[in-house]
Amino acid sequence: MNQSHAGTTSPCPHRALTGQVEQLELFHWFVQAHRQDQGGELKTEAATTEAGAVRDAHA
User: Could you list the pLDDT tens digit for every one of the 59 residues in the chain?
Assistant: First the structure.
C-alpha cells in the first residue's frame, strides 16, 4: 500500500459502515430496554450463567 494513501477512506464504504453502526446501536438500545425492569435495573444482573440469564429474563 502506498504510504500517501494510508488512512484515507472512500466516501461510499464510510457511509455504509456508518449506517451499519447506526443500526447496531439502535438494536443495542432495543435489547437493553427489554433487559431492564421499570427501575432501570438489569433483570439478569444476578445470573452467573447464560442459561440463568435466560431464565431471569423470562421471569
Answer: 455 555 666 777 888 888 999 999 999 988 888 777 778 777 778 888 888 877 877 77
Question: Which of helix, strand or coil describes residue 42?
Answer: strand
Q: How far apart are CA 53 and CA 20, in angstroms?
A: 28
Give the residue numbers spanning the domain of 7: 3-58
Task: Kindly state the cell numbers that stand for 45.
Answer: 444482573
Cell 433487559, residue located: 35
Three-state secondary structure call for residue 36? strand
From residue 11, how far is each of 3, 19, 23 by CA, in Å? Answer: 19, 12, 18
Tally of structural domains, the chain: 1
Note the pTM of the prediction, 2 decimals: 0.49
